[in-house]
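job 3f2a | input accepted
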Amino acid sequence: MNAEIDLTNVVLKTERLTLRAWLPEDLDDLFEYASVPGVGEMAGWAHHTDRWVSQTVLNHFIEGKKTFALVYHGKVIGSLGVENYREERFPEFSDKRCCEVGFVLSKTYWGQGLMPEAVHEVLRWLFEEKELETVFCGHFLRNKASARVQEKCGFRHYAFGKFETRIGTVEDDEMNILTREDWEKRHPAA
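job 3f2a | predicted structure (190 res):
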């Protein structure tokens, strides 16, 4: 079953990042990275062509209370959402507290290890503080960078499938999972 997630007043910190709720003043940073061709398309949405699109997304982030802004040196460089997983696709998890995470990072910061750092901290929060049992994370098969982030964070293959994007394409995808049991094996209590 999908766990209820509300990021109100949640602030997570890593060595290099602050993960916090989105704010109205984040519009320019969101537009800056979301308007670059190839960023959104790797996640199934078209890059933003004007600030109105970014404003609509920003409003959704703020109202939904399920998406972290990734702040690096005072600038928002990406997002990490904690969303409902598709219960109809994976009914075998109906008795477990679950969610799905998804992420986008500014192209400027690709390859610096920032996204695995952010995902790792959100997983810690989900398993240790929110007491979830399973976290899903998917990627398009062509998105090798996202696959690598998930691998670094301990996710393992669960299923292949098709994903209909917001831009009307259908992508081959892989859904990976990480259970709390597997998380605890990788991160034993001190």
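job 3f2a | The first strand starts at residue 12 and ends at 13.
job 3f2a | closed
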